[in-house]
Amino acid sequence: MNRHDLAKAIYHTAHITGEFVLRSGAISHEYFDKYLFEAKPDLLAHIATQLKGLVPTETEVLAGLELGGVPIATALSLHSSLPAAFVRKKAKEYGTCKIAEGASISGRKVLIVEDVVTSGGQVVLSAQDLRNHGAQIIGAVCVIDREAGGREALESISVPFFPLFSMTELKQAGEQA
């Protein structure tokens, strides 16, 4: 599937309208329900194929953020053969008490994987958590950049940002006949 067709497929699968409160607290009248495209194996495989081209060559570990980044990181791991870690919003208070499960992140070059980035708030928090546990954050990749300050937030903490699509690009592709 080429990039334009993938953008159309994501739009037609996941774009919904109504009134939605975003993680940032902002109200939006349109929303990309990432679980709708993450739950479709064929679409998720095409997304991973396209994302693979955005992965910096020095990447040692893919770090999928809870919850939506986990299926994306898993699919990307399958397509790239890179190990994956699954990053919690808060370290669990029992068992291993880790912030990141799966592949070891300490001393490794880690690429954060997220589904949708709006303000970048969770990616910024998770980047700091991962750094506190010894990860060398080399960037963040996502499927959709909502173009609402995420890039700027990540750049302010020296995390290069690699979105597969902007919201504008998805809307343009989806609204074409």
What does it look like?
- With 177 residues, the protein is of the alpha/beta class.
- The protein is built from 7 helices and 8 strands, in the order H-E-E-H-H-E-H-E-E-E-H-E-H-E-H.
- The strands form 2 sheets. The chain has a 6-stranded mixed sheet, sandwiched between helices. A two-stranded antiparallel sheet has the order 1-2.
- Helix 6 (150-155) links the parallel strand 7 (136-145) and strand 8 (161-166).
- The longest helix has 12 residues, at 3-14.
- It is globular.
Describe, in short, the structure shown.
With 177 residues, this protein is of the alpha/beta class. Helix content is 38%, strand content 28%.
Keywords:
7 helices; 6-stranded mixed β-sheet; two-stranded antiparallel sheet; single chain; 177 residues; 8 strands; alpha/beta
